[in-house]
Amino acid sequence: MISKRIVLHFPRDLVSEPTISRLVKKYDLECNILRANITPRQVGIMVLGLKGGNKQYKDAIVYLKSLNITVQPLSQDVTWNEDLCTDCGACVTICPTEALTKDPNTQKVRFDKDACIGCELCIPACPMGAMEVHF
Amino acid sequence: MSKTIAEINDKIKKGKAVVVTVEELIGLVEEKGVSKSAQTVDVVTTGTMGPMCSSGAYFNIGQPKPKIKLGGGKAYLNDIPVYTGLAAGDFFIGAGALPDSDPRNKIYPGKFAYGGGHAIEDLVAGQDLRFTATAYGTDCYPRKELSTWLSIRDMNEAVLFNPRNIYQNYNVAVNLSDRVIYTYMGILKPNLGNANYCSAGQLSPLLKDPGFLTIGIGTRVFLGGGVGYIAWWGTQHNTSVKTNRNGVPTAPAGTAALIGDLKQMSPEWLKGASFTGYGATMVVGVGVPIPILNEEICRHAALPDEKLSTRIVDYGRDYPQGRMRDLGTVNYAQLKSGTIRVRDKQVPTASLSSYPRAIKIASILKSWIEEGRFFLTERVGEFPGPGSGYSYHPLKERPIT
Ligand code: SF4
Ligand code: SF4
User: In this structure, are residues B194 and B176 in contact, taking their beta carbons and an 8 Å threshold?
Assistant: First the structure.
């Protein structure tokens, strides 16, 4: 038995729903969609909890990758180091879930930890090293 | 009703000068009009803090015993190669310098975790850095190797000297290609996925004095938390760009070269930065005071975001190839709203320049002047201004055969 939480990055034009139902049917995995952020014509992101047999899990990952879906483990924790942040905003349009937003009035950047799915996309986007991953 | 800088300095000395930030001036002009505001206000303070790659610092280390000639040798500061083509005890480090061991973009996109900008920040923070040098040895400078800890306190002079800072306006970067690109304007998502700009807009120093009527060589400024000066106009200074109705450039135009004592500066306003896939650089905080000598200066200084605009440029194909295609013009109010329209698409915007920091710089500079700790300088030389014909031109290659 294996139980894992992973982040999937869907390429544009790939419909996510059949993919997930396929995981359930073909690989006999228990799927739990923890968060989905897929808008039409955009690259989508999904956080998925998977439970099932070791071999089935491995095969499922191979299947997902064959569809050009990027699979990564869910980070334990992505944090925002406010002291290092200069409120530039370079991360804001990169974050897929609006965990990082800019207040249009003050132009200050805010981090909403609950909305963060740990996809780590903000890490390379931040020039100041203010977004940190903890394993 | 015009004033002189000497009169304003006299008021500063007596604690009677009326100093406002740009944001305050905009409110005042809306309420009372340009003419009244120009009479009341003596100085308006601007501010900006963003990545400024053409930055660096030079130092004199003081000679060890026996002496060493850095000039013509090789030296490293925290593994970053520094420029030693100067005299025996001097070296220069640029914000974009990288350790020889940095893989650059070999593993694409590169991280550029530690570069010259970070080393300068560490020095300013008072840290000890590793300094190693090799030299060829002369009769008067016999030493061939040096390996020592070095802090800013050990140096005789530590001077920030930036050949190009505080761009008067800057591009909005978008990506029309179909892959993610990593640029000095940040990560740009394919097919107009985002739009990054880099200016404080209404607070940006050179946008507030578009004709360089007060700003020039010798202007005293806030630089990296200390006091600095405008040394010259900056590299790539360009006065031949389109302007709007108010005579303000709508594309990257003027620039300034800045100099100041690094020992007075603070890591809060001078920060190393890493642009994934692009390189290392430094974020520099700058504030320039503008003396309100007459109504014209006041009117320009009070132009709000809505009246300051810039052009949109494709960094996917056009920029790297040196092509210029007009993708439209947007103003800074639109940019700061969070989305702009490009080619019938709503595109989310982000800034690389920190507006909250710009506000803070303008207000610190304001308080320095109010407290009589900072006086205005009369410039000693003018920048090439609009109509001078001074312009940037690309390189015409003349291949060596
Ligand atoms: S890891 Fe970063 S980019 Fe991803 S959701 Fe969290 S804040 Fe946003
Ligand atoms: S990119 Fe980094 S420094 Fe800029 S706002 Fe985001 S977290 Fe702060």
Answer: no
Residue B231: φ, ψ to 5°: -90, -30
Q: Please indicate if any CB of chain B lies within 8 Å of the CB of A11.
A: no
Cα–Cα distances (Å) from A68 to A10, A19, A26, A43, in that order, read 7, 12, 18, 12
ipTM field:
0.93
Helices and strands in chain B: count of H runs, count of E runs: 7, 26
Residues A107, A53, single domain; the answer is: no
- Its domain, for residue B109, covers 56-160
Six-digit token string for B348: 């989310």
Residues B224, B303 within the same domain: yes
Spatial separation of the C-alpha atoms in residues A121 and A43, rounded to whole Å: 12
Measured between CA atoms, how close is B345 to chain A, in angstroms?
12
Q: What pTM value is reported for the model?
A: 0.90
pLDDT of residue A76: 65
Q: Across the strands, what pairs with B145?
A: B134
Give the residue ranges of chain B where pLDDT is below 70: 1
Between residues B33 and A19, the one the model is more confident about: B33
- Among A123, A131, A133, which residue has the most ligand 2 atoms within 8 Å of its CB, making it the best to mutate? A131
> What are the tens digits of pLDDT across the range B159-203?
999 999 999 999 999 999 999 999 999 999 999 999 999 999 999
Task: Output the CA B294–ligand 2 centroid distance in Å.
Answer: 39
CA A72 – ligand 1 centroid, Å: 13
Query: Cα of A94 to ligand 1 centre, how many Å?
Result: 8
Distance (Å) from the alpha carbon of A51 to chain B's nearest alpha carbon? 33
Domain endpoint, select from B143, B160, B177: B160
Residue B373 falls inside a structural domain: yes
Q: Has residue B398 been placed in a domain?
A: no
A108 and chain B in contact, CB less than 8 A: yes
pLDDT at A42: 59
pLDDT of residue A39: 56
Parent domain of A119: 81-133
Q: What is the number of the ligand 1 atom nearest to the C-alpha of A78? A: 1
Which protein residues are within 6 Å of ligand 1, measured from CB?
A 78, 95, 97, 99-100, 116-122, 131
